[in-house]
Amino acid sequence: MGNKSFDLNIEQILENWEVQHGIREVIANALDEQILTDTSPVLVEKRGAIWIIRDYGRGIRYTHLTQNENQEKLASPRVIGRFGIGLKDALATFERHNVRARIRSRFGTIQTIKSAKHGFGDIHTLHAVIEDPEDPSFVGTEFELEGVDDREMEAAKSLFLIFSGECLLDTTRFGQIISRRAGPGAIYINGVKVAEENNFLFSYNITLLNAAMKKAINRERSHVGRTAYADSVKKILLASSNSDVAHRLSDDISRFQEGTMHDELAWVDVQEHAVRILNAQGKVMMVTAEEAMNFPDLMDQARESGTTILTIPENLRAKIADTVDIDGNPMLDLARFTETYNDSFSFNFVEPETLSTKEREVFNAIPLIIDMYGGLPSNVKSVRISNTMRPDLISGSQTLGCWDSATASIVIWRNQLQSLPTTVGTLIHEMVHAKTGLSDVTRDFETALTEVIGRLCHGWLEAKKRRTPDMAKQLRPFQPDTENFRAMQSDSSANRPANKSRKKPWFQFW
Q1: Nearest of 350, 351, 352, 339 to residue 406 by alpha carbon
Q2: Residue ranges of the domains in the chain?
Q3: Is 411 helix (H, G, I), strand (E, B) or coil?
Q4: CATH tag for 349-462 (out of 1.10.3470, 3.40.50, 3.30.2010, 3.30.70)
Q5: At residue 47, what are phi and psi to the nearest 5 degrees?
Q6: Residues 6 or more apart from 107 whose CB is under 8 A from it?
Q7: How far does Cα 313 stand from its chain's mean position?
Q8: Which residues are 324's β-sheet partners?
Q9: What's this model's pTM, rounded to 2 decimal places?
Q10: How far apart are the first and last CA of the chain?
Q11: Which of 223, 328, 345, 371 lies 20 to 30 angstroms, CA to CA, from 126?
């Protein structure tokens, strides 16, 4: 073939490009060839004063020096190149910075010179000189770069994930999650760095490009804006089920009160995904900062049981309420932990014949109270007495009684049998729970309890009327003692003398 000169039609371009940017294009082409041909890894090494970059693919031809989009690369989602001008850009950059480049393959050897343009002696452009191959059996393509500062080579290599030395945490169909080292987080596209993120928890390698990403990739493959890749990063995180990733995300969630959360955790769906993974992998209770502060006894009980407390934002707490984790298990929040704890409690039931005489008197009145109530709810089989009673984890106070659905019984703490009024109050309270299925400290439960109190009082008054026909005459008129009432309103506990006797209430029924 002999020597041939190929006009690259380049005078002075890419003024802002440094040598590292030209090397980046050479390495990118080598990595693409490795992927397309499934050949051995790319070699980057220094031999004496010369840096070598070599792939083991099909070998470069002079036709690759034309500016033309590579349809093979455009059809492959995994490769880096897409513009068809990276090689020419690299050669122009090397020439501008006095780096001698020599390219070898089985098809020939290529070097560059500045030469007059054919027919226009006053215009000098960059030409590629193509020589016969030195070794027709040579495998792949080898670049020899002479005059490259080692720092430029290291800067170029740092732009590629494969040379970064970063630790891969997880791979999803959208891309990879990478453990962030010292310095900013990196955003890679098919292994090439395109952006940096100072406040990202991880680095990311996006391998499935959406339309926004393809549009945003510029010729330099740098300074790509977050709006272009944010959706891809989110998809990578949501597709991950890696426990290490989930733990790091959840640890970061707990810093929301300090204002030091990383930017990925601003996405609530990422927060939710992380805690759903954690819930499936261990005993972690999700609580808000307010819940942790209001229920310290419950927090202590959870820790003693081996449960880790994770403080989460209010909006995440609302989002995971009554949901399940990635394995279909209920999320462990404060209510669920309390329910689980209660279910694990063992009662120490007492047989009636072992009660004391005073306790038996109160216990024997229970059937009368049940009759006044209208009978036991249909789902209650018995009323039982226990020496032990599970504490109320929410309030930290002693539970006086409970409706235990597991045994279909209302359980009353034995201590209550010291007083008939306390026993009656506890029994009615728990019968309302059993009948309605409502929880304490809810408006619906308070309404149901009020209705029962009203009905019982009404029944008691009707019974008294039947026993005392002239009962109405015994009721005193409802006449408020306005003087006493005004005195009570103006008299505060702060300035009232300790020995001052109060007047009788201004209301009386009989």
Answers
A1: 339
A2: 4-157, 160-240, 242-344, 349-462
A3: strand
A4: 3.30.2010
A5: -120, 105
A6: 59, 60, 61, 62, 133
A7: 11
A8: 330
A9: 0.64
A10: 126
A11: 223
For CA atoms 92, 93, 94, 98, the dihedral sign is: positive
Question: Tokens for 502?
Answer: 């109060």
φ/ψ of 156, rounded to 5, equals -65, -45
Please classify residue 58 by burial: count the beta carbons closer than 10 Å to its beta carbon, then call 0-12 exposed, 13-18 middle and 19+ buried. Answer: middle
- In three-state secondary structure terms, 175 is strand
Distance CA 70, CA 341 (A): 64
The answer to whether 365 and 428 have CB atoms below 8 angstroms apart is no
Bridge pairing between strands 175-179 and 167-171: antiparallel
For residue 140, which of 28, 41, 251 has the smallest C-alpha distance?
41
Closest CA to 398 of 415, 376, 410, 384: 415
Write out the two tokens for 49: 């004063």
401-404/382-386 β-pairing: unpaired
Whether the Cβ atoms of residue 422 and residue 369 lie closer than 8 Å to each other: no
Neighbours of 445 (CB within 10 A): 17
Put residue 437 in one of left, alpha, beta given phi > 0 → left and psi -120 to 50 → alpha. left
Considering Cα of 66, then 71, then 72, then 75, what sign does the dihedral take?
Answer: positive
Beta-bridge mates of residue 195: 187
> Of the candidates 366, 367, 361, 347, which has an alpha carbon nearest to the alpha carbon of residue 418?
361
The distance from CA 366 to its chain's CA centroid, rounded to whole angstroms, is: 52
E strands along 298-451, which residues? 308-311, 349-350, 382-386, 401-404, 409-413
Rounded Cα distance between 484 and 505, Å, is 8
Mean pLDDT of residues grouped by 10 in the chain (510 residues)?
62 74 92 92 95 95 70 66 69 89 94 75 76 93 96 94 92 95 89 92 91 66 80 94 90 83 92 90 86 82 85 88 88 80 76 90 89 88 87 63 84 90 89 85 83 82 70 47 47 45 34
Q: Name, in order, each residue with C-beta under 8 angstroms of 11's C-beta and a sequence gap of 6 or more.
A: 123, 124, 125, 126
Beta-carbon count within 10 A of 361 CB: 12
3-state class (DSSP) for residue 152: helix
Q: Are 108 and 1 in contact (CB under 8 A)?
A: yes
Q: Where are the alpha helices (DSSP H) in 217-311?
A: 226-239, 243-253, 268-281, 289-294, 296-304
Residues 6+ apart with CB under 8 A from 192: 24, 28, 80, 159, 160, 161, 221
Q: Tokens for 120?
A: 């226009």
* Residue indicated by tokens 């029994």: 427
